[in-house]
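Field reference: sequence -> structure
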Amino acid sequence: MPRLTIFDLSQELIDEIFDHLHSRQDLDTLRACALTARIFRWSSRRRICSRIDLCSNTPHVREGREGRIQVLLGILKDAPEVGKHVMRLRLRIHSFDNGWVAGDPSFLELMTAITSPVNNLRELQIIGLDFPDKFADARTLEENFLRPFITPVIKKLYIHGMIHIPFSIVASSPKLKDLTLSETDFESVPFADLEAHIPQITITDIPRLSVFEFSRPVGATTTLLDSVEAGFPIAHLSSLKIILAPGEAPSVEYVQRVIHMASASLEEIRFYPEYELHLEASLDFSSLHHLHTFEVGIEFSGGLATKNALSDLCRTLQTLPPANSVKSLSVSIFLGFSSYDGPDNILVADWETFDKEVTRIAYAKARFELELRILCDDPDLETSSVTEGEAEEVVVAQCKSVFARMVREKLGRCYAARHIQIMVRYSLDSWGEWKTILQKL
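Structure field:
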Protein backbone atom coordinates (compact mmCIF):
# COMPACT_ATOMS: atom_id res chain seq x y z
CA MET A 1 0.00 0.00 0.00
CA PRO A 2 1.45 3.42 -0.94
CA ARG A 3 2.28 5.73 1.93
CA LEU A 4 -0.37 8.41 2.53
CA THR A 5 0.77 11.99 1.95
CA ILE A 6 -0.59 13.13 5.33
CA PHE A 7 2.06 11.07 7.13
CA ASP A 8 4.72 13.29 5.57
CA LEU A 9 3.22 16.50 6.98
CA SER A 10 4.75 18.23 9.97
CA GLN A 11 3.11 17.92 13.38
CA GLU A 12 2.55 21.70 13.38
CA LEU A 13 0.59 21.54 10.11
CA ILE A 14 -1.50 18.58 11.29
CA ASP A 15 -2.26 20.48 14.49
CA GLU A 16 -3.43 23.47 12.45
CA ILE A 17 -5.67 21.22 10.34
CA PHE A 18 -7.28 19.89 13.52
CA ASP A 19 -7.90 23.46 14.68
CA HIS A 20 -9.99 24.09 11.57
CA LEU A 21 -11.80 20.75 11.37
CA HIS A 22 -12.77 19.83 14.91
CA SER A 23 -14.40 21.61 17.82
CA ARG A 24 -13.69 20.70 21.44
CA GLN A 25 -17.19 19.21 21.71
CA ASP A 26 -16.60 16.66 18.92
CA LEU A 27 -15.05 14.14 21.30
CA ASP A 28 -16.07 11.00 19.40
CA THR A 29 -14.29 12.16 16.25
CA LEU A 30 -11.22 13.19 18.24
CA ARG A 31 -11.07 9.80 19.97
CA ALA A 32 -11.39 8.06 16.60
CA CYS A 33 -8.55 10.16 15.18
CA ALA A 34 -6.35 9.34 18.17
CA LEU A 35 -6.85 5.61 17.53
CA THR A 36 -6.41 5.85 13.76
CA ALA A 37 -2.77 6.87 13.54
CA ARG A 38 0.03 7.82 15.90
CA ILE A 39 0.57 11.09 14.01
CA PHE A 40 -2.96 12.20 15.02
CA ARG A 41 -2.60 11.26 18.67
CA TRP A 42 -0.96 14.42 20.01
CA SER A 43 -3.37 16.78 18.21
CA SER A 44 -6.41 14.76 19.33
CA ARG A 45 -5.26 14.41 22.93
CA ARG A 46 -4.51 18.12 23.21
CA ARG A 47 -8.13 18.94 22.39
CA ILE A 48 -9.73 16.12 24.37
CA CYS A 49 -7.82 17.16 27.50
CA SER A 50 -8.07 20.93 27.04
CA ARG A 51 -10.88 21.34 29.59
CA ILE A 52 -11.65 19.77 32.95
CA ASP A 53 -15.31 19.95 34.01
CA LEU A 54 -16.28 19.21 37.63
CA CYS A 55 -19.66 19.58 39.30
CA SER A 56 -21.04 19.71 42.83
CA ASN A 57 -23.09 16.71 43.92
CA THR A 58 -26.62 18.11 44.16
CA PRO A 59 -29.59 16.70 46.13
CA HIS A 60 -31.14 15.56 42.84
CA VAL A 61 -28.17 14.56 40.72
CA ARG A 62 -25.00 12.82 41.83
CA GLU A 63 -22.47 12.97 39.03
CA GLY A 64 -19.75 11.06 40.84
CA ARG A 65 -17.36 13.99 41.20
CA GLU A 66 -15.12 12.09 43.60
CA GLY A 67 -14.68 9.21 41.15
CA ARG A 68 -14.04 11.60 38.28
CA ILE A 69 -11.28 13.35 40.24
CA GLN A 70 -9.64 10.00 41.00
CA VAL A 71 -9.73 9.03 37.31
CA LEU A 72 -8.13 12.35 36.36
CA LEU A 73 -5.43 11.92 38.99
CA GLY A 74 -4.69 8.45 37.65
CA ILE A 75 -4.31 9.78 34.11
CA LEU A 76 -1.97 12.55 35.24
CA LYS A 77 0.16 10.16 37.28
CA ASP A 78 0.51 7.76 34.34
CA ALA A 79 1.03 10.54 31.78
CA PRO A 80 2.11 13.80 33.48
CA GLU A 81 2.50 15.49 30.09
CA VAL A 82 -1.31 15.50 29.75
CA GLY A 83 -1.36 18.31 32.32
CA LYS A 84 0.20 20.61 29.72
CA HIS A 85 -2.95 20.33 27.59
CA VAL A 86 -5.37 21.53 30.31
CA MET A 87 -6.17 25.17 29.57
CA ARG A 88 -9.70 25.54 30.98
CA LEU A 89 -11.25 24.57 34.31
CA ARG A 90 -15.06 24.61 34.60
CA LEU A 91 -16.62 24.32 38.06
CA ARG A 92 -20.39 24.00 38.44
CA ILE A 93 -21.20 24.90 42.02
CA HIS A 94 -24.15 24.28 44.35
CA SER A 95 -24.50 25.97 47.73
CA PHE A 96 -25.17 22.60 49.40
CA ASP A 97 -21.92 21.07 48.16
CA ASN A 98 -18.94 23.32 47.51
CA GLY A 99 -16.49 22.74 50.34
CA TRP A 100 -14.56 20.37 48.09
CA VAL A 101 -13.18 23.31 46.07
CA ALA A 102 -11.14 24.54 49.04
CA GLY A 103 -11.01 21.43 51.23
CA ASP A 104 -10.90 18.17 49.25
CA PRO A 105 -7.29 16.90 49.28
CA SER A 106 -7.82 14.96 46.04
CA PHE A 107 -9.13 18.02 44.20
CA LEU A 108 -6.29 20.18 45.53
CA GLU A 109 -3.83 17.50 44.40
CA LEU A 110 -5.40 17.69 40.94
CA MET A 111 -5.02 21.47 40.96
CA THR A 112 -1.34 21.12 41.88
CA ALA A 113 -0.85 18.80 38.91
CA ILE A 114 -2.48 21.08 36.32
CA THR A 115 -1.04 24.40 37.55
CA SER A 116 2.65 23.53 37.77
CA PRO A 117 4.99 26.07 36.11
CA VAL A 118 5.28 23.97 32.94
CA ASN A 119 1.49 23.71 32.46
CA ASN A 120 -0.93 26.03 30.69
CA LEU A 121 -4.11 26.56 32.73
CA ARG A 122 -5.39 29.99 31.71
CA GLU A 123 -9.19 30.02 31.99
CA LEU A 124 -11.61 29.50 34.89
CA GLN A 125 -15.39 29.21 34.68
CA ILE A 126 -17.51 29.21 37.85
CA ILE A 127 -21.20 28.54 37.27
CA GLY A 128 -23.90 28.50 39.94
CA LEU A 129 -26.32 25.62 39.41
CA ASP A 130 -29.24 27.13 41.32
CA PHE A 131 -28.99 30.94 41.40
CA PRO A 132 -27.96 32.39 43.72
CA ASP A 133 -25.22 30.00 44.81
CA LYS A 134 -22.21 30.84 46.95
CA PHE A 135 -19.08 29.32 48.44
CA ALA A 136 -19.38 28.47 52.13
CA ASP A 137 -16.18 30.24 53.23
CA ALA A 138 -14.69 32.98 51.04
CA ARG A 139 -11.48 33.27 53.10
CA THR A 140 -10.74 29.53 52.95
CA LEU A 141 -11.48 29.62 49.23
CA GLU A 142 -8.91 32.40 48.81
CA GLU A 143 -6.25 30.71 50.91
CA ASN A 144 -6.55 27.13 49.63
CA PHE A 145 -7.75 27.56 46.03
CA LEU A 146 -7.58 31.05 44.54
CA ARG A 147 -4.21 32.25 45.80
CA PRO A 148 -2.11 29.12 45.15
CA PHE A 149 -3.73 27.94 41.90
CA ILE A 150 -5.90 30.54 40.17
CA THR A 151 -4.94 34.19 40.58
CA PRO A 152 -1.28 33.76 39.52
CA VAL A 153 -2.15 32.18 36.15
CA ILE A 154 -5.63 32.90 34.78
CA LYS A 155 -6.07 35.12 31.74
CA LYS A 156 -9.80 34.55 31.25
CA LEU A 157 -12.51 34.41 33.92
CA TYR A 158 -16.24 33.66 33.57
CA ILE A 159 -18.57 33.77 36.59
CA HIS A 160 -22.32 33.10 36.37
CA GLY A 161 -25.03 32.80 39.00
CA MET A 162 -22.81 33.29 42.07
CA ILE A 163 -22.90 35.70 45.02
CA HIS A 164 -20.37 36.64 47.73
CA ILE A 165 -17.46 36.03 45.34
CA PRO A 166 -14.17 37.31 46.83
CA PHE A 167 -12.83 40.51 45.24
CA SER A 168 -9.42 38.90 44.99
CA ILE A 169 -10.48 36.52 42.23
CA VAL A 170 -10.25 39.60 39.98
CA ALA A 171 -8.10 42.07 41.88
CA SER A 172 -5.25 39.60 42.56
CA SER A 173 -5.06 38.17 39.03
CA PRO A 174 -2.36 40.25 37.28
CA LYS A 175 -2.56 38.24 34.02
CA LEU A 176 -6.36 38.52 33.70
CA LYS A 177 -7.38 40.09 30.37
CA ASP A 178 -10.84 38.70 29.61
CA LEU A 179 -13.61 38.99 32.24
CA THR A 180 -17.29 37.97 32.04
CA LEU A 181 -19.67 38.70 34.92
CA SER A 182 -23.14 37.19 34.52
CA GLU A 183 -25.81 37.39 37.24
CA THR A 184 -23.02 37.58 39.82
CA ASP A 185 -22.14 39.65 42.88
CA PHE A 186 -18.99 40.19 44.91
CA GLU A 187 -18.88 40.03 48.68
CA SER A 188 -19.91 43.23 50.47
CA VAL A 189 -16.71 45.04 51.42
CA PRO A 190 -16.29 48.86 51.30
CA PHE A 191 -13.70 49.91 48.72
CA ALA A 192 -11.80 51.89 51.34
CA ASP A 193 -11.38 48.68 53.37
CA LEU A 194 -10.31 46.57 50.42
CA GLU A 195 -6.56 46.72 51.11
CA ALA A 196 -7.01 45.88 54.80
CA HIS A 197 -9.56 43.16 54.03
CA ILE A 198 -7.41 41.44 51.39
CA PRO A 199 -3.83 42.50 52.25
CA GLN A 200 -2.22 40.41 49.50
CA ILE A 201 -3.62 42.73 46.80
CA THR A 202 -1.08 45.25 45.53
CA ILE A 203 -1.10 47.80 42.74
CA THR A 204 0.88 45.43 40.52
CA ASP A 205 -1.67 42.64 41.04
CA ILE A 206 -4.65 44.59 39.72
CA PRO A 207 -5.30 43.41 36.15
CA ARG A 208 -5.64 45.57 33.06
CA LEU A 209 -8.61 44.15 31.18
CA SER A 210 -8.78 43.94 27.40
CA VAL A 211 -12.23 42.32 27.15
CA PHE A 212 -15.17 42.89 29.51
CA GLU A 213 -18.59 41.29 29.15
CA PHE A 214 -21.63 41.52 31.40
CA SER A 215 -25.19 40.23 31.16
CA ARG A 216 -26.99 42.70 33.45
CA PRO A 217 -25.82 45.97 35.04
CA VAL A 218 -26.21 44.70 38.60
CA GLY A 219 -24.10 43.17 41.33
CA ALA A 220 -20.49 42.59 40.38
CA THR A 221 -20.69 44.79 37.28
CA THR A 222 -21.90 47.73 39.36
CA THR A 223 -19.21 47.08 41.95
CA LEU A 224 -16.46 46.94 39.34
CA LEU A 225 -17.40 50.24 37.72
CA ASP A 226 -18.02 51.93 41.07
CA SER A 227 -14.60 50.79 42.30
CA VAL A 228 -12.87 52.41 39.32
CA GLU A 229 -14.75 55.68 39.80
CA ALA A 230 -14.07 55.64 43.56
CA GLY A 231 -10.31 55.31 43.04
CA PHE A 232 -10.06 51.77 44.46
CA PRO A 233 -10.20 49.72 41.24
CA ILE A 234 -10.77 45.97 41.30
CA ALA A 235 -9.55 46.00 37.70
CA HIS A 236 -8.20 48.72 35.43
CA LEU A 237 -10.39 49.54 32.42
CA SER A 238 -8.19 52.21 30.86
CA SER A 239 -6.71 49.65 28.43
CA LEU A 240 -10.03 47.97 27.57
CA LYS A 241 -10.44 47.14 23.88
CA ILE A 242 -13.72 45.18 23.71
CA ILE A 243 -17.00 45.58 25.61
CA LEU A 244 -19.93 43.14 25.23
CA ALA A 245 -23.33 43.81 26.80
CA PRO A 246 -27.10 43.53 26.29
CA GLY A 247 -28.80 46.44 24.56
CA GLU A 248 -31.43 47.23 27.18
CA ALA A 249 -31.50 50.79 28.48
CA PRO A 250 -29.85 50.19 31.92
CA SER A 251 -27.00 48.28 30.26
CA VAL A 252 -26.48 51.02 27.68
CA GLU A 253 -26.00 53.46 30.56
CA TYR A 254 -23.26 51.24 31.99
CA VAL A 255 -21.61 50.88 28.60
CA GLN A 256 -21.49 54.68 28.46
CA ARG A 257 -19.67 54.66 31.80
CA VAL A 258 -17.17 52.18 30.39
CA ILE A 259 -16.70 54.38 27.31
CA HIS A 260 -15.77 57.26 29.60
CA MET A 261 -13.19 55.08 31.39
CA ALA A 262 -11.70 53.46 28.26
CA SER A 263 -12.18 56.06 25.53
CA ALA A 264 -8.48 56.10 24.65
CA SER A 265 -8.31 52.35 23.96
CA LEU A 266 -11.79 51.00 23.14
CA GLU A 267 -11.90 49.34 19.70
CA GLU A 268 -15.04 47.17 19.68
CA ILE A 269 -18.53 47.56 21.14
CA ARG A 270 -20.76 44.53 20.72
CA PHE A 271 -24.31 44.37 22.00
CA TYR A 272 -25.66 40.86 22.35
CA PRO A 273 -27.20 39.54 19.12
CA GLU A 274 -30.23 38.08 20.94
CA TYR A 275 -33.05 40.01 19.36
CA GLU A 276 -35.06 40.55 22.54
CA LEU A 277 -32.10 42.57 23.81
CA HIS A 278 -32.28 45.31 21.21
CA LEU A 279 -30.78 48.77 21.61
CA GLU A 280 -33.09 50.85 23.81
CA ALA A 281 -31.07 54.05 24.22
CA SER A 282 -28.46 56.08 22.38
CA LEU A 283 -24.78 56.40 23.25
CA ASP A 284 -22.16 59.11 22.89
CA PHE A 285 -19.24 57.92 20.76
CA SER A 286 -17.65 61.35 20.34
CA SER A 287 -14.57 60.41 22.39
CA LEU A 288 -13.93 57.08 20.63
CA HIS A 289 -11.19 57.72 18.10
CA HIS A 290 -10.05 54.07 17.91
CA LEU A 291 -13.42 52.32 17.65
CA HIS A 292 -13.43 50.10 14.54
CA THR A 293 -16.29 47.61 15.14
CA PHE A 294 -19.86 48.20 16.31
CA GLU A 295 -22.47 45.43 16.56
CA VAL A 296 -26.04 46.09 17.65
CA GLY A 297 -29.53 44.57 17.59
CA ILE A 298 -32.75 46.38 16.62
CA GLU A 299 -36.37 45.23 17.02
CA PHE A 300 -38.99 46.09 14.40
CA SER A 301 -42.21 45.28 16.25
CA GLY A 302 -44.73 47.13 14.11
CA GLY A 303 -46.51 50.48 14.04
CA LEU A 304 -44.84 53.57 15.52
CA ALA A 305 -42.22 51.39 17.23
CA THR A 306 -40.96 50.24 13.84
CA LYS A 307 -40.97 53.77 12.44
CA ASN A 308 -38.69 54.85 15.30
CA ALA A 309 -36.71 51.59 15.51
CA LEU A 310 -33.53 53.12 14.11
CA SER A 311 -33.71 56.36 16.10
CA ASP A 312 -31.35 55.41 18.95
CA LEU A 313 -28.90 53.81 16.54
CA CYS A 314 -28.88 56.87 14.26
CA ARG A 315 -28.43 59.24 17.21
CA THR A 316 -25.48 57.11 18.33
CA LEU A 317 -23.89 57.14 14.88
CA GLN A 318 -24.32 60.92 14.67
CA THR A 319 -22.00 61.33 17.67
CA LEU A 320 -19.06 59.76 15.83
CA PRO A 321 -16.57 62.44 14.74
CA PRO A 322 -15.81 62.83 11.01
CA ALA A 323 -12.27 61.56 11.65
CA ASN A 324 -13.23 58.15 13.03
CA SER A 325 -11.76 54.65 12.76
CA VAL A 326 -14.96 52.64 12.33
CA LYS A 327 -14.56 50.00 9.62
CA SER A 328 -17.38 47.58 10.40
CA LEU A 329 -21.04 48.03 11.37
CA SER A 330 -23.24 44.98 11.96
CA VAL A 331 -26.97 45.46 12.62
CA SER A 332 -29.06 42.44 13.68
CA ILE A 333 -32.75 43.08 13.03
CA PHE A 334 -35.66 41.19 14.57
CA LEU A 335 -38.54 41.66 12.14
CA GLY A 336 -41.83 40.68 13.74
CA PHE A 337 -44.58 40.44 11.16
CA SER A 338 -46.91 37.69 12.37
CA SER A 339 -49.56 40.32 13.10
CA TYR A 340 -48.50 42.90 10.54
CA ASP A 341 -48.24 43.33 6.83
CA GLY A 342 -45.44 40.92 6.02
CA PRO A 343 -41.77 41.86 5.64
CA ASP A 344 -42.73 45.24 4.14
CA ASN A 345 -42.79 46.30 7.79
CA ILE A 346 -39.05 46.90 7.53
CA LEU A 347 -39.49 49.68 4.95
CA VAL A 348 -41.28 51.98 7.42
CA ALA A 349 -38.16 52.80 9.46
CA ASP A 350 -36.00 55.87 8.90
CA TRP A 351 -33.43 54.24 6.63
CA GLU A 352 -32.65 57.57 4.97
CA THR A 353 -30.99 58.93 8.12
CA PHE A 354 -29.21 55.61 8.65
CA ASP A 355 -27.98 55.66 5.05
CA LYS A 356 -26.72 59.21 5.44
CA GLU A 357 -24.84 58.50 8.69
CA VAL A 358 -23.21 55.29 7.46
CA THR A 359 -22.03 57.08 4.32
CA ARG A 360 -20.60 59.89 6.45
CA ILE A 361 -18.81 57.49 8.79
CA ALA A 362 -17.38 55.50 5.88
CA TYR A 363 -16.16 58.59 4.01
CA ALA A 364 -12.52 58.54 2.85
CA LYS A 365 -12.00 54.94 3.98
CA ALA A 366 -10.57 52.43 1.54
CA ARG A 367 -13.08 49.83 2.74
CA PHE A 368 -16.12 49.81 5.01
CA GLU A 369 -18.23 46.74 5.89
CA LEU A 370 -21.98 46.99 6.52
CA GLU A 371 -23.80 43.81 7.54
CA LEU A 372 -27.56 43.47 8.05
CA ARG A 373 -28.73 40.24 9.69
CA ILE A 374 -32.52 39.99 9.55
CA LEU A 375 -34.39 37.43 11.65
CA CYS A 376 -37.95 37.13 10.38
CA ASP A 377 -40.68 36.17 12.83
CA ASP A 378 -42.22 33.35 10.79
CA PRO A 379 -46.02 33.69 10.55
CA ASP A 380 -48.24 30.98 12.03
CA LEU A 381 -48.34 28.47 9.21
CA GLU A 382 -50.78 26.04 10.85
CA THR A 383 -53.83 28.16 9.97
CA SER A 384 -52.80 28.47 6.36
CA SER A 385 -54.70 26.68 3.59
CA VAL A 386 -51.39 25.59 2.03
CA THR A 387 -48.74 23.25 3.34
CA GLU A 388 -46.06 24.51 5.70
CA GLY A 389 -43.40 24.05 3.03
CA GLU A 390 -45.39 26.03 0.47
CA ALA A 391 -46.11 28.79 2.97
CA GLU A 392 -42.43 29.04 3.89
CA GLU A 393 -41.50 29.35 0.22
CA VAL A 394 -43.90 32.29 -0.07
CA VAL A 395 -42.38 33.96 3.00
CA VAL A 396 -38.84 33.41 1.71
CA ALA A 397 -39.73 34.89 -1.68
CA GLN A 398 -41.29 37.93 0.04
CA CYS A 399 -38.24 38.42 2.25
CA LYS A 400 -35.78 38.24 -0.62
CA SER A 401 -37.75 40.72 -2.69
CA VAL A 402 -38.40 43.24 0.09
CA PHE A 403 -34.91 43.17 1.61
CA ALA A 404 -33.15 43.55 -1.73
CA ARG A 405 -35.50 46.42 -2.57
CA MET A 406 -34.87 48.00 0.83
CA VAL A 407 -31.12 48.12 0.24
CA ARG A 408 -31.36 49.50 -3.28
CA GLU A 409 -34.06 52.09 -2.56
CA LYS A 410 -33.53 53.01 1.10
CA LEU A 411 -29.74 52.70 1.27
CA GLY A 412 -28.96 54.35 -2.04
CA ARG A 413 -25.86 56.22 -0.87
CA CYS A 414 -24.31 53.11 0.67
CA TYR A 415 -25.23 50.99 -2.34
CA ALA A 416 -23.67 53.47 -4.75
CA ALA A 417 -20.45 53.92 -2.75
CA ARG A 418 -17.80 51.65 -4.22
CA HIS A 419 -15.84 51.38 -0.97
CA ILE A 420 -18.84 50.24 1.13
CA GLN A 421 -19.31 46.47 1.15
CA ILE A 422 -22.85 45.37 1.97
CA MET A 423 -23.94 41.93 3.15
CA VAL A 424 -27.63 41.20 3.79
CA ARG A 425 -28.54 37.86 5.36
CA TYR A 426 -31.81 36.52 6.73
CA SER A 427 -33.24 33.56 8.63
CA LEU A 428 -36.74 32.39 9.59
CA ASP A 429 -35.35 30.73 12.70
CA SER A 430 -32.80 32.12 15.17
CA TRP A 431 -31.24 28.64 15.33
CA GLY A 432 -31.54 28.04 11.61
CA GLU A 433 -29.35 28.66 8.62
CA TRP A 434 -28.50 32.22 7.66
CA LYS A 435 -28.94 32.78 3.93
CA THR A 436 -27.43 35.58 1.89
CA ILE A 437 -29.89 37.77 -0.04
CA LEU A 438 -27.57 40.45 -1.28
CA GLN A 439 -23.81 40.85 -1.31
CA LYS A 440 -22.15 43.93 -2.76
CA LEU A 441 -18.37 43.80 -2.67
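Note: The chain has two domains: 49-239, 262-441.
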